[in-house]
Design goal:
The protein is an alpha+beta fold and about 300 residues long. The chain contains 7 helices and 15 strands. Among the domains are: about 120 residues, no CATH class; about 90 residues, Immunoglobulin-like. The strands form 4 sheets. The chain has a 5-stranded mixed β-sheet, covered by helices on one side.
Amino acid sequence: MRPRSQRNVLRLTPGALLTFILLSAGAAPADGPYTGWIESFNGPSRAYVLLREKMPVDVALFTPLEDGDWIVIREKINDVSGDSENRIALALGDGKKLTLTYQDTPYRVESAERPVTLTANLMRWARDYFKDLQGYDYQARVVSLVTRNDSAVPLAVPLLAPPETRLASGERALYLAWQGGEPPFRLAVARELTGETLLSEENVSEHHLELGSAVFVPGAYQLRLTDAQDSWVALRFVVVPASELPRMPPDLARDLERSALPESTRTILQAAWLAEQDEIWRLEAYQRAAESSGDAYAAQLLRRLLRGDL
């Protein structure tokens, strides 16, 4: 995960950014109801224009949409993304989804029969957070097109990089991801005190995996990851009672609960908030991001950040 000094967000004390947002009276636009919000778009934000009463509005994930907004796609072809054509996906009232391409714009957003409830503070935080991630994603794709690295990348597990990485106790699957090494991989998770293997898997061809469900009781655990060349890493994490998880500020939790966002999207925002609090919760945040809708762009961005890909 990028250091907070680079993201201008992450070195704040826990909750400081959210507290500032929530207490900035008059700084946010009025709460909904809205017509919908921007769910995803590929390529750089400069390829898109959102106009509200003839004034430009930031194009970013989770930007709320109002009746009468105009959306324009300025560039048809996207040379960076794996997709050849720019497109933007909107989540609208009544659960409708709409994807626009170059030939579909200019497009006028029209009021929904059942407008969606979205609180301004929540959406502004989500928009700003994922705007950063999307910028990092775009930069990473540009770099991948112009650089080549033929040298072997050593095994690394950024999810477990922070000392005393924590995971909430309980019966659950364990989602893991790593970098480098040569497949196939072998993994084993054991209790540190007894050496008892709790979960294991062999012949893993990908750099990510959902291990089977197990009961994680409070205590120290060790992950051992080995590749085809018998290179290996062993990393420690600590399981703590779920009651030790940081709690969202009441105002933000209430805004999230009353919003019209789908449950999977709310899970992603909860995971993003948790990741912001302290890097020791990186593994726990990844569990939540991995459990959510796999195709959601916000979920993909968050998972890539936590895995160390951005």
